[in-house]
Amino acid sequence: MKRVALTAALLTLCLTLFAGTSHPVKPDTLADLGTIDLRPTLAPNQRQWAEGITITLLTIGSGDPLYAWFGHSALIVGQPNGASTMYDWGIFDSEQEHFYLNFARGRMYYYVWASDGAWRIDEALQEGRDVRLAELDLSAEAKWALAGYLSEHIGSEGATYLYHFYDDNCATRIRDIIDVATEGDFGRWAKSRSTAESARLLTAPYMLHRPLVSWVLSTLQGARVDRIESQWDAMFLPMELERAVLDYRRSDGSPLVKSLTTLAEDKSPKTTQRSATAMAVALSLSLTILLLLLPSAARKVVLGLLYLVLAIIGSLLLFMMCYSDMDMTWANINILVINPVLFIAAFALLFTRRRHSILATILALVTTLLLIGRVVWPSLFAQDNLTTLLVLLPLYLSGAAFERRGNRKAGKGAHAEAAGSESGRKA
Predict the structure, then answer these.
(1) Looking at the whole model, is its pTM more than 0.70?
(2) Mean pLDDT over residues 126-135, rounded?
(3) Do 388 and 330 belong to one domain?
(4) Average pLDDT estimate for 104-125
(5) Rounded distance, CA 246 to CA 261, Å?
(6) Is 229 in a helix, a strand, or coil?
(7) 3-class SS letters over 63-129
(8) Same domain for 324 and 248
Protein backbone atom coordinates (compact mmCIF):
# COMPACT_ATOMS: atom_id res chain seq x y z
CA MET A 1 0.00 0.00 0.00
CA LYS A 2 2.87 2.35 0.76
CA ARG A 3 4.26 1.80 -2.74
CA VAL A 4 0.87 2.62 -4.22
CA ALA A 5 0.61 5.80 -2.16
CA LEU A 6 4.11 6.94 -3.06
CA THR A 7 3.59 6.15 -6.75
CA ALA A 8 0.30 8.08 -6.79
CA ALA A 9 1.95 11.03 -5.07
CA LEU A 10 4.81 11.09 -7.60
CA LEU A 11 2.41 10.85 -10.56
CA THR A 12 0.39 13.76 -9.19
CA LEU A 13 3.51 15.87 -8.77
CA CYS A 14 4.59 15.00 -12.32
CA LEU A 15 1.22 16.08 -13.66
CA THR A 16 1.71 19.51 -12.13
CA LEU A 17 4.71 20.05 -14.40
CA PHE A 18 2.25 20.34 -17.27
CA ALA A 19 -0.28 22.41 -15.37
CA GLY A 20 -1.26 25.70 -16.91
CA THR A 21 -0.08 24.76 -20.39
CA SER A 22 -3.52 25.07 -21.99
CA HIS A 23 -3.81 28.14 -24.19
CA PRO A 24 -6.75 30.35 -23.23
CA VAL A 25 -9.37 31.60 -25.58
CA LYS A 26 -8.62 35.30 -25.26
CA PRO A 27 -11.57 37.27 -23.87
CA ASP A 28 -13.24 39.17 -26.66
CA THR A 29 -12.99 42.86 -25.90
CA LEU A 30 -14.65 46.03 -27.06
CA ALA A 31 -11.97 46.52 -29.69
CA ASP A 32 -14.30 48.40 -32.00
CA LEU A 33 -14.71 51.06 -29.33
CA GLY A 34 -11.67 52.67 -30.85
CA THR A 35 -13.64 53.39 -34.01
CA ILE A 36 -16.08 55.69 -32.22
CA ASP A 37 -15.92 59.27 -33.40
CA LEU A 38 -16.21 61.26 -30.18
CA ARG A 39 -16.27 64.58 -32.03
CA PRO A 40 -18.96 64.20 -34.66
CA THR A 41 -20.35 67.23 -36.38
CA LEU A 42 -23.86 67.68 -34.99
CA ALA A 43 -26.66 69.62 -36.59
CA PRO A 44 -28.39 72.12 -34.27
CA ASN A 45 -31.31 69.78 -33.61
CA GLN A 46 -28.95 66.86 -32.99
CA ARG A 47 -26.89 68.91 -30.55
CA GLN A 48 -30.01 69.95 -28.68
CA TRP A 49 -31.06 66.32 -28.40
CA ALA A 50 -27.54 65.14 -27.43
CA GLU A 51 -27.30 67.69 -24.63
CA GLY A 52 -30.40 66.11 -23.10
CA ILE A 53 -28.93 62.58 -23.16
CA THR A 54 -27.71 61.23 -19.81
CA ILE A 55 -25.08 58.52 -19.34
CA THR A 56 -25.34 57.09 -15.83
CA LEU A 57 -23.30 54.45 -13.99
CA LEU A 58 -25.48 52.17 -11.87
CA THR A 59 -23.68 50.54 -8.93
CA ILE A 60 -25.34 47.86 -6.82
CA GLY A 61 -23.79 46.65 -3.58
CA SER A 62 -23.00 43.15 -2.42
CA GLY A 63 -25.83 40.61 -2.20
CA ASP A 64 -26.27 37.24 -0.57
CA PRO A 65 -25.99 34.73 -3.48
CA LEU A 66 -22.45 33.86 -4.50
CA TYR A 67 -22.77 35.55 -7.90
CA ALA A 68 -23.88 38.76 -6.13
CA TRP A 69 -21.15 38.89 -3.49
CA PHE A 70 -19.02 41.35 -5.42
CA GLY A 71 -21.75 43.77 -6.43
CA HIS A 72 -22.84 44.78 -9.92
CA SER A 73 -22.45 47.56 -12.49
CA ALA A 74 -24.60 48.64 -15.42
CA LEU A 75 -24.80 51.63 -17.72
CA ILE A 76 -28.04 53.55 -18.22
CA VAL A 77 -28.60 55.80 -21.23
CA GLY A 78 -31.44 58.26 -20.78
CA GLN A 79 -33.06 60.09 -23.68
CA PRO A 80 -34.60 63.60 -23.56
CA ASN A 81 -38.06 62.11 -24.22
CA GLY A 82 -37.89 60.21 -20.94
CA ALA A 83 -37.01 56.79 -22.37
CA SER A 84 -34.03 55.01 -20.83
CA THR A 85 -32.07 51.88 -21.71
CA MET A 86 -29.93 49.89 -19.31
CA TYR A 87 -26.97 48.02 -20.75
CA ASP A 88 -26.22 45.13 -18.43
CA TRP A 89 -23.19 42.87 -19.03
CA GLY A 90 -23.93 40.62 -16.03
CA ILE A 91 -26.51 38.22 -17.44
CA PHE A 92 -25.90 34.46 -17.45
CA ASP A 93 -28.08 31.39 -17.90
CA SER A 94 -27.46 28.59 -15.39
CA GLU A 95 -29.75 26.33 -17.42
CA GLN A 96 -27.52 26.38 -20.49
CA GLU A 97 -25.92 23.10 -21.53
CA HIS A 98 -22.73 22.17 -19.62
CA PHE A 99 -23.00 25.35 -17.54
CA TYR A 100 -20.81 24.21 -14.62
CA LEU A 101 -18.29 22.43 -16.85
CA ASN A 102 -17.93 25.53 -19.01
CA PHE A 103 -17.49 27.64 -15.89
CA ALA A 104 -14.73 25.34 -14.55
CA ARG A 105 -13.02 25.41 -17.95
CA GLY A 106 -13.15 29.20 -18.14
CA ARG A 107 -15.39 29.17 -21.20
CA MET A 108 -18.45 30.85 -19.79
CA TYR A 109 -20.32 33.20 -22.10
CA TYR A 110 -22.25 36.04 -20.51
CA TYR A 111 -24.97 38.10 -22.11
CA VAL A 112 -25.39 41.85 -22.36
CA TRP A 113 -29.00 42.98 -22.41
CA ALA A 114 -30.45 46.27 -23.43
CA SER A 115 -33.64 46.82 -21.45
CA ASP A 116 -35.49 49.17 -19.16
CA GLY A 117 -33.29 49.43 -16.10
CA ALA A 118 -36.20 49.53 -13.69
CA TRP A 119 -36.27 45.76 -13.16
CA ARG A 120 -32.64 45.59 -12.07
CA ILE A 121 -33.02 48.54 -9.69
CA ASP A 122 -36.28 47.22 -8.22
CA GLU A 123 -34.69 43.81 -7.68
CA ALA A 124 -31.75 45.34 -5.81
CA LEU A 125 -34.05 47.52 -3.70
CA GLN A 126 -36.12 44.49 -2.70
CA GLU A 127 -32.94 42.65 -1.69
CA GLY A 128 -31.91 45.58 0.53
CA ARG A 129 -28.67 46.23 -1.36
CA ASP A 130 -26.86 49.52 -1.92
CA VAL A 131 -28.08 51.26 -5.07
CA ARG A 132 -26.36 54.38 -6.41
CA LEU A 133 -26.55 56.32 -9.66
CA ALA A 134 -23.61 58.41 -10.85
CA GLU A 135 -24.43 60.62 -13.85
CA LEU A 136 -21.35 61.23 -15.97
CA ASP A 137 -20.47 64.73 -17.14
CA LEU A 138 -19.65 64.22 -20.81
CA SER A 139 -19.77 66.45 -23.84
CA ALA A 140 -22.82 66.41 -26.10
CA GLU A 141 -20.70 64.83 -28.84
CA ALA A 142 -19.44 62.05 -26.55
CA LYS A 143 -22.93 61.26 -25.28
CA TRP A 144 -24.31 61.18 -28.83
CA ALA A 145 -21.49 58.86 -29.95
CA LEU A 146 -21.78 56.47 -27.01
CA ALA A 147 -25.55 56.27 -27.18
CA GLY A 148 -25.33 55.49 -30.89
CA TYR A 149 -22.59 52.90 -30.40
CA LEU A 150 -24.45 51.04 -27.66
CA SER A 151 -27.70 51.07 -29.59
CA GLU A 152 -26.03 49.76 -32.74
CA HIS A 153 -23.73 47.11 -31.24
CA ILE A 154 -26.06 45.71 -28.61
CA GLY A 155 -29.59 46.61 -29.58
CA SER A 156 -32.69 44.89 -28.26
CA GLU A 157 -31.46 41.34 -29.02
CA GLY A 158 -28.37 41.63 -26.86
CA ALA A 159 -24.97 40.05 -27.40
CA THR A 160 -22.56 37.63 -25.75
CA TYR A 161 -18.95 37.83 -24.60
CA LEU A 162 -16.44 35.46 -23.02
CA TYR A 163 -16.54 36.14 -19.28
CA HIS A 164 -13.43 36.45 -17.14
CA PHE A 165 -13.85 37.39 -13.49
CA TYR A 166 -10.80 39.67 -13.38
CA ASP A 167 -10.31 40.79 -16.97
CA ASP A 168 -13.68 40.95 -18.68
CA ASN A 169 -16.89 41.34 -16.71
CA CYS A 170 -19.80 43.70 -16.11
CA ALA A 171 -17.53 46.34 -14.54
CA THR A 172 -14.51 46.18 -16.86
CA ARG A 173 -16.73 46.57 -19.92
CA ILE A 174 -18.11 49.82 -18.56
CA ARG A 175 -14.61 50.90 -17.48
CA ASP A 176 -13.44 50.53 -21.09
CA ILE A 177 -16.39 52.53 -22.41
CA ILE A 178 -15.73 55.35 -19.93
CA ASP A 179 -12.07 55.33 -20.93
CA VAL A 180 -13.02 55.82 -24.58
CA ALA A 181 -15.46 58.58 -23.61
CA THR A 182 -12.55 60.46 -22.00
CA GLU A 183 -10.31 59.78 -25.00
CA GLY A 184 -8.06 57.48 -22.97
CA ASP A 185 -7.35 59.93 -20.15
CA PHE A 186 -9.30 57.89 -17.59
CA GLY A 187 -7.20 54.83 -18.38
CA ARG A 188 -3.89 56.69 -18.23
CA TRP A 189 -4.86 58.14 -14.85
CA ALA A 190 -6.00 54.79 -13.40
CA LYS A 191 -3.01 52.80 -14.68
CA SER A 192 -0.61 55.25 -13.02
CA ARG A 193 -2.18 54.65 -9.60
CA SER A 194 -1.45 51.54 -7.54
CA THR A 195 -3.91 50.07 -5.07
CA ALA A 196 -1.00 48.47 -3.15
CA GLU A 197 -3.24 45.40 -2.91
CA SER A 198 -3.54 42.18 -4.87
CA ALA A 199 -6.75 40.88 -6.39
CA ARG A 200 -6.88 38.28 -3.61
CA LEU A 201 -6.84 41.00 -0.96
CA LEU A 202 -9.28 43.19 -2.86
CA THR A 203 -11.89 40.44 -3.02
CA ALA A 204 -11.37 39.16 0.55
CA PRO A 205 -13.77 41.61 2.28
CA TYR A 206 -16.61 40.42 0.05
CA MET A 207 -16.13 36.77 1.07
CA LEU A 208 -15.43 36.88 4.80
CA HIS A 209 -19.06 36.16 5.72
CA ARG A 210 -18.66 32.69 4.16
CA PRO A 211 -15.32 31.47 5.58
CA LEU A 212 -15.35 27.93 4.16
CA VAL A 213 -16.35 29.03 0.66
CA SER A 214 -13.80 31.82 0.86
CA TRP A 215 -11.09 29.32 1.83
CA VAL A 216 -11.94 26.97 -1.05
CA LEU A 217 -12.00 29.80 -3.61
CA SER A 218 -8.68 31.15 -2.32
CA THR A 219 -7.12 27.67 -2.42
CA LEU A 220 -8.19 27.13 -6.04
CA GLN A 221 -6.48 30.35 -7.18
CA GLY A 222 -2.76 30.63 -7.80
CA ALA A 223 -0.17 33.36 -8.09
CA ARG A 224 -2.10 35.23 -10.81
CA VAL A 225 -4.29 36.90 -8.18
CA ASP A 226 -1.38 37.92 -5.95
CA ARG A 227 0.23 40.56 -8.14
CA ILE A 228 -0.22 44.16 -7.05
CA GLU A 229 -3.04 45.74 -9.01
CA SER A 230 -3.22 49.21 -10.48
CA GLN A 231 -6.46 51.07 -10.02
CA TRP A 232 -7.26 50.22 -13.62
CA ASP A 233 -7.00 46.47 -12.97
CA ALA A 234 -8.86 46.76 -9.66
CA MET A 235 -11.94 47.99 -11.50
CA PHE A 236 -13.06 44.41 -12.08
CA LEU A 237 -14.93 45.10 -8.83
CA PRO A 238 -17.99 47.36 -9.26
CA MET A 239 -17.21 49.26 -6.05
CA GLU A 240 -13.68 49.99 -7.28
CA LEU A 241 -15.09 51.19 -10.60
CA GLU A 242 -17.43 53.58 -8.81
CA ARG A 243 -14.65 54.79 -6.52
CA ALA A 244 -12.36 55.48 -9.47
CA VAL A 245 -15.06 57.31 -11.41
CA LEU A 246 -15.69 59.52 -8.37
CA ASP A 247 -11.99 60.16 -7.74
CA TYR A 248 -10.99 60.89 -11.33
CA ARG A 249 -10.31 64.48 -12.35
CA ARG A 250 -9.72 65.70 -15.88
CA SER A 251 -6.73 67.82 -16.84
CA ASP A 252 -8.67 70.98 -16.06
CA GLY A 253 -9.54 69.64 -12.59
CA SER A 254 -13.21 69.04 -13.33
CA PRO A 255 -14.84 65.84 -12.04
CA LEU A 256 -16.28 63.14 -14.28
CA VAL A 257 -19.36 62.67 -12.12
CA LYS A 258 -22.02 65.34 -12.54
CA SER A 259 -24.26 64.08 -9.75
CA LEU A 260 -24.43 61.10 -7.38
CA THR A 261 -27.80 59.80 -6.24
CA THR A 262 -28.23 57.18 -3.52
CA LEU A 263 -31.47 55.27 -3.97
CA ALA A 264 -30.86 52.81 -1.13
CA GLU A 265 -28.24 52.03 1.46
CA ASP A 266 -27.77 48.60 2.95
CA LYS A 267 -28.69 48.93 6.63
CA SER A 268 -27.74 45.37 7.64
CA PRO A 269 -24.70 44.94 9.91
CA LYS A 270 -21.52 44.97 7.90
CA THR A 271 -19.23 41.97 7.95
CA THR A 272 -16.40 42.46 10.40
CA GLN A 273 -13.28 43.09 8.38
CA ARG A 274 -11.28 40.27 9.89
CA SER A 275 -8.18 39.24 8.04
CA ALA A 276 -8.24 36.03 6.05
CA THR A 277 -5.22 34.81 8.04
CA ALA A 278 -6.97 35.26 11.39
CA MET A 279 -9.98 33.44 10.03
CA ALA A 280 -7.80 30.56 8.83
CA VAL A 281 -6.11 30.30 12.24
CA ALA A 282 -9.51 30.12 13.93
CA LEU A 283 -10.66 27.38 11.56
CA SER A 284 -7.38 25.53 12.04
CA LEU A 285 -7.66 25.59 15.83
CA SER A 286 -11.28 24.48 15.66
CA LEU A 287 -10.33 21.46 13.55
CA THR A 288 -7.50 20.53 15.93
CA ILE A 289 -9.71 20.75 19.02
CA LEU A 290 -12.46 18.75 17.32
CA LEU A 291 -10.08 15.93 16.41
CA LEU A 292 -8.61 15.84 19.92
CA LEU A 293 -12.01 15.63 21.61
CA LEU A 294 -13.49 12.94 19.43
CA PRO A 295 -13.20 9.26 20.42
CA SER A 296 -10.99 7.07 18.27
CA ALA A 297 -13.72 5.52 16.12
CA ALA A 298 -15.41 8.85 15.44
CA ARG A 299 -12.09 10.54 14.73
CA LYS A 300 -11.33 7.89 12.11
CA VAL A 301 -14.60 8.63 10.31
CA VAL A 302 -14.21 12.42 10.56
CA LEU A 303 -10.65 12.27 9.23
CA GLY A 304 -11.78 10.03 6.40
CA LEU A 305 -14.57 12.41 5.43
CA LEU A 306 -12.28 15.43 5.62
CA TYR A 307 -9.72 13.70 3.41
CA LEU A 308 -12.51 12.81 0.99
CA VAL A 309 -13.64 16.45 0.75
CA LEU A 310 -10.05 17.62 0.28
CA ALA A 311 -9.51 14.96 -2.40
CA ILE A 312 -12.52 16.28 -4.32
CA ILE A 313 -11.23 19.86 -4.04
CA GLY A 314 -7.77 18.67 -5.08
CA SER A 315 -9.24 16.89 -8.12
CA LEU A 316 -11.03 20.08 -9.12
CA LEU A 317 -7.81 22.04 -8.65
CA LEU A 318 -5.82 19.62 -10.80
CA PHE A 319 -8.48 19.73 -13.52
CA MET A 320 -8.55 23.53 -13.52
CA MET A 321 -4.76 23.72 -13.60
CA CYS A 322 -4.47 21.41 -16.60
CA TYR A 323 -7.67 21.84 -18.60
CA SER A 324 -9.10 25.26 -17.79
CA ASP A 325 -8.62 28.58 -19.53
CA MET A 326 -8.88 30.35 -16.16
CA ASP A 327 -5.35 31.66 -15.81
CA MET A 328 -5.91 32.38 -12.12
CA THR A 329 -5.83 28.61 -11.46
CA TRP A 330 -2.57 27.87 -13.25
CA ALA A 331 0.76 27.04 -11.57
CA ASN A 332 -0.97 26.66 -8.22
CA ILE A 333 1.49 25.47 -5.57
CA ASN A 334 -1.39 24.21 -3.42
CA ILE A 335 -1.51 21.08 -5.60
CA LEU A 336 1.43 19.84 -3.53
CA VAL A 337 -0.68 19.63 -0.39
CA ILE A 338 -4.22 19.11 -1.63
CA ASN A 339 -4.64 16.68 -4.52
CA PRO A 340 -6.42 13.49 -5.67
CA VAL A 341 -3.93 11.28 -3.77
CA LEU A 342 -6.03 12.01 -0.69
CA PHE A 343 -8.63 9.58 -2.03
CA ILE A 344 -6.27 6.79 -0.93
CA ALA A 345 -6.10 8.13 2.63
CA ALA A 346 -9.87 8.61 2.74
CA PHE A 347 -10.50 5.06 1.48
CA ALA A 348 -8.04 3.59 4.01
CA LEU A 349 -9.74 5.34 6.92
CA LEU A 350 -13.34 4.73 5.89
CA PHE A 351 -13.26 1.24 4.43
CA THR A 352 -10.25 -0.67 5.82
CA ARG A 353 -8.93 -1.58 9.23
CA ARG A 354 -5.44 -0.45 8.42
CA ARG A 355 -4.58 3.23 8.78
CA HIS A 356 -1.90 4.09 6.26
CA SER A 357 -0.10 7.06 7.78
CA ILE A 358 2.45 7.47 4.98
CA LEU A 359 0.31 9.91 3.00
CA ALA A 360 -0.63 12.04 5.99
CA THR A 361 3.03 12.12 7.04
CA ILE A 362 4.21 13.20 3.59
CA LEU A 363 1.53 15.87 3.31
CA ALA A 364 2.25 17.12 6.83
CA LEU A 365 5.95 17.41 5.99
CA VAL A 366 5.36 19.23 2.69
CA THR A 367 2.83 21.57 4.30
CA THR A 368 5.25 22.35 7.13
CA LEU A 369 8.09 23.13 4.73
CA LEU A 370 5.87 25.36 2.60
CA LEU A 371 4.54 27.15 5.68
CA ILE A 372 8.06 27.79 7.01
CA GLY A 373 9.13 29.07 3.61
CA ARG A 374 6.04 31.26 3.32
CA VAL A 375 6.68 32.85 6.73
CA VAL A 376 10.49 33.09 6.65
CA TRP A 377 11.01 33.93 2.95
CA PRO A 378 7.73 35.44 1.71
CA SER A 379 9.52 37.18 -1.13
CA LEU A 380 10.32 33.80 -2.68
CA PHE A 381 6.64 32.90 -2.89
CA ALA A 382 4.71 34.55 -5.68
CA GLN A 383 1.56 32.89 -4.36
CA ASP A 384 -0.03 33.84 -1.06
CA ASN A 385 -1.27 30.47 0.21
CA LEU A 386 -0.79 31.09 3.92
CA THR A 387 -4.47 30.57 4.75
CA THR A 388 -4.51 27.25 2.91
CA LEU A 389 -1.45 25.96 4.75
CA LEU A 390 -2.69 27.11 8.16
CA VAL A 391 -5.89 25.11 7.78
CA LEU A 392 -4.27 21.96 6.38
CA LEU A 393 -1.28 21.62 8.71
CA PRO A 394 -3.09 20.64 11.94
CA LEU A 395 -5.32 18.28 9.99
CA TYR A 396 -2.39 16.43 8.46
CA LEU A 397 -0.34 16.43 11.67
CA SER A 398 -3.16 15.08 13.80
CA GLY A 399 -4.09 12.63 11.08
CA ALA A 400 -0.55 11.29 10.81
CA ALA A 401 -0.23 10.92 14.59
CA PHE A 402 -3.65 9.26 14.89
CA GLU A 403 -3.03 6.82 12.04
CA ARG A 404 0.39 5.83 13.38
CA ARG A 405 -1.12 5.07 16.79
CA GLY A 406 -3.81 3.03 15.11
CA ASN A 407 -1.26 1.12 13.08
CA ARG A 408 0.80 0.35 16.20
CA LYS A 409 -2.28 -0.92 18.02
CA ALA A 410 -3.31 -2.98 15.03
CA GLY A 411 0.21 -4.39 14.79
CA LYS A 412 0.31 -5.26 18.48
CA GLY A 413 -3.09 -6.88 18.22
CA ALA A 414 -2.05 -8.96 15.24
CA HIS A 415 1.19 -9.95 17.00
CA ALA A 416 -0.71 -10.97 20.14
CA GLU A 417 -3.19 -12.95 18.07
CA ALA A 418 -0.37 -14.73 16.25
CA ALA A 419 1.36 -15.48 19.54
CA GLY A 420 -1.87 -16.88 20.99
CA SER A 421 -2.36 -19.12 17.99
CA GLU A 422 1.20 -20.38 18.25
CA SER A 423 0.83 -21.18 21.97
CA GLY A 424 -2.43 -22.94 21.24
CA ARG A 425 -0.75 -25.19 18.70
CA LYS A 426 2.03 -26.01 21.15
CA ALA A 427 -0.49 -26.95 23.79
Answers:
(1) yes
(2) 93
(3) yes
(4) 85
(5) 12
(6) strand
(7) CCCHHHCCCEEEEEEECCCCCEEEEEEEECCCCCCCHHHHHHCCCCEEEEEEECCHHHHHHHHHCCC
(8) no
